[in-house]
Design goal:
The structure is a homodimer.
Chain A (H helix, E strand, L loop, with lengths): L3 E3 L9 H10 L10 H20 L7 E4 L2 H15 L6 E5 L4 H12 L3 E5 L9 H7 L4 E5 L13 H10 L3 E5 L11 H4 L3 E5 L10 E5 L25 H39 L3 E3 L10 E6 L4 H10 L2 E3 L14 H5 L4 H4 L2 E5 L6 H27 L1
Parallel strand pairs in A: 1-11, 3-4, 3-5, 5-6, 6-7
Antiparallel strand pairs in A: 2-8, 7-8, 9-10, 10-12
Helix pairs in contact in A: 1-8, 2-8, 3-4, 8-12, 9-12
Chain lengths: 385, 385
């Protein structure tokens, strides 16, 4: 029996065309050399930049490649704050940001920045009124994610940007969970900076990017040979970057159909799970949601035993926020949404991808039902003893 | 006629076994997931860590993967200075460091650190007496490269480390140009931190590492999901990292033979060039030198016209420091070694790799001779006019 992968939160599978692009790029030269092989490599690099820029409606010059989404997020916060000190030293973020945003903010706080963390409502939405109340003349930057990869909620970024810009604060959005899954248009959103990562839209790990609106001042995090216009030095990971370009081009072309396909499969998963399991709750907004994400809490079981039990039966599922998977504390996202520790205990992140079939979903639901039933009976026995 | 690549300074070609490892790793899971695919990916990651650690005689726990050598160098300087502020805020480096060290140091200087740059002698050596004189009780860190990839000189690191440690300063060495080419043993050298990059020893771009001696305090540069023991967050670029492991294992096994092979080919290049060309000077130490490097200056021609002329005839050669290849100023390394602008003008970095044959060398020498002769006659005509 082939395994069923419902854990595409941290990384999506690599598409065949993307894989071919990596292999083809392995023999390219160094884009910083001036001779023939170097010039060809440079062309490949710039082609990828155009492809990724097109996915988010940016100008290629506004796009800087990084090694991963974490680097893009760290750079956005640290680089924009350091580059715009004249305005002040105040940073605002939301309580459900990825650790690559919240821990970068914590570091900035330790170094003297004032950091304000905005709450979210029960569905995971940041309220524009809360942002408005938090803004001060010293606010340099607001960083609120476009979509939360764990609970699936897509934030009202356009509205939040308008509020930030009224107070002349810059706006960065972590679009790592969103790009390639929902339309992302930097011009329509109005954002000043935006992070995205290839391994979240069927590209490889090792390539990501930070969009920085033209004319904006950002200090580099990595200094050296002057690659990426001096904004991000380091030999370019050309195979991964070229593959990110291909993945972006496919995403740009297929996004509407992809979203429709995945939504249908995801909705089937939801319907079957809620019909067949008792004590199940859906988390996150349903009206404004990533098409490939389902987040549930199962009463009377723990996330960890669920994920391990499902794994033993051939189903990969996600445990809270993927990057914190080793830590058994309830997810900070669920806590911020007001779930109690008890409510958050049986949280399961189920993310599907291109290739997940209705049959996969039906088999997975059966297995989830069986595993949950077994775990619940064990829990019942233990608590009786 | 196949092209001859004598520009392996910034990147070496990828070995067939390394390429296979990348392709095989493309379908691995996320090493941070706790289910089966994640655990297998984690094993692959840890195997690569052992392989790279073995190349430099470090413990696997002391090795942290980064995305590129530039990141490793930036992290070493910024992270060690920030992590050891109690001792002071003084940093010492040499005048011939790669920009990823010297520009990171400049940034630290702008942020309040005291930075001392040590001179080098005519062969590119840092003198231990100069280091001794520069050390103060506030010196936190000394960063001197193990070998200079441009002029080939291998520095007396062991001696320099002893001097630094007498003054209780930490010692970082940029071994990016050296690892895989000359023996690198962190215990024998005594260094506290060391950078190396896969794409300099027949691995791919996108994977590098920083060795940090156990027990040392270093602040992370990238904060987030807690990968690499919390020292370097970000989804691991597993295909590139696994490939770096394979390249390291091959380097560990083949280093003595590889060095012998490359030295023979490089020496043939030197002998033929000096025999057949007039007005040629060899730069860098000959006694303590990278086996695959030759650095020459040709009188009466410019580096750029040489590199472009050779490129047109099918020979890729390096122009000053590879990462600064767009800039036409004489290399900072040659300036530090005391060469005048006029002497440095016709500088050519010739680096060979596994696969460069004696026949390649003979053909290249013929072409270099022809191109140099043509350029010199043009220069003579122009200056007469």
């Amino acid at each position: 029996m082939t395994r069923i992968n419902l854990d595409c939160t941290a990384s999506t599978p690599i598409l065949p065309q993307v894989r071919e692009a990596i292999v083809a790029a392995l023999d390219e030269g160094n884009p910083s050399s001036i001779h023939a092989a170097g010039r060809q490599a440079k062309q490949r690099l710039e082609r990828a930049r155009q492809q990724v820029a097109a996915l988010i409606n940016a100008a290629p010059e506004e796009l800087h490649f990084t090694s991963c989404g974490t680097e893009a997020n760290n750079w956005a916060l640290k680089g924009l704050l350091a580059g715009n000190k004249r305005k002040g030293n105040h940073l605002i973020l939301s309580a459900i940001e990825h650790p690559s945003v919240s821990l970068a903010a914590r570091r900035l706080g330790l170094e003297g920045a004032e950091v304000t963390t905005l709450p979210v409502d029960r569905e995971g939405f940041v309220r524009p009124a809360d942002l408005k109340a938090a803004l001060t003349p010293e606010t340099v930057l607001v960083s609120i994610m476009l979509a939360n990869g764990e609970v699936g909620t897509v934030e009202p970024i356009q509205e939040l940007v308008a509020v930030a810009h009224e107070h002349e604060a810059l706006f960065h959005t972590d679009a790592i969970a969103a790009a390639g899954h929902v339309p992302v248009d930097v011009k329509a959103l109005g954002v000043d900076a935006l992070s995205l990562a290839a391994n979240q839209f069927y590209g490889p790990p090792g390539a990501a990017a930070l969009f920085v609106r033209e004319g904006l001042r950002i200090l580099p995090l990595l200094e050296g040979g002057g690659q990426e216009g001096g904004n991000r030095s380091g030999t370019e990971a050309l195979p991964a970057i070229v593959a990110m370009g291909v993945a972006a081009e496919i995403a740009t072309r297929e996004l509407p159909e992809r979203a429709k396909r995945l939504t249908a499969v995801r909705d089937r998963l939801r319907t079957a799970l809620t019909a067949q399991l008792e004590g199940i709750r859906i988390n996150g907004s349903w009206a404004s949601r990533l098409p490939h994400n389902l987040h549930v809490c199962l009463d009377g079981v723990s996330s960890e035993s669920l994920v391990l039990g499902l794994d033993a039966e051939g189903v990969a599922a996600g445990l809270g926020s993927a990057c914190n998977s080793k830590s058994m504390r309830p997810s900070h996202v669920l806590k911020a949404m007001g779930l109690t520790d008890e409510e958050a205990k049986g949280a399961l992140v189920l993310t599907i991808a291109e290739g997940t079939t209705p049959d996969d979903v039906d088999r997975a639901v059966e297995i989830i039902e069986r595993v949950a039933k077994r775990l619940r009976s064990v829990t019942a026995l233990t608590s009786r003893a």
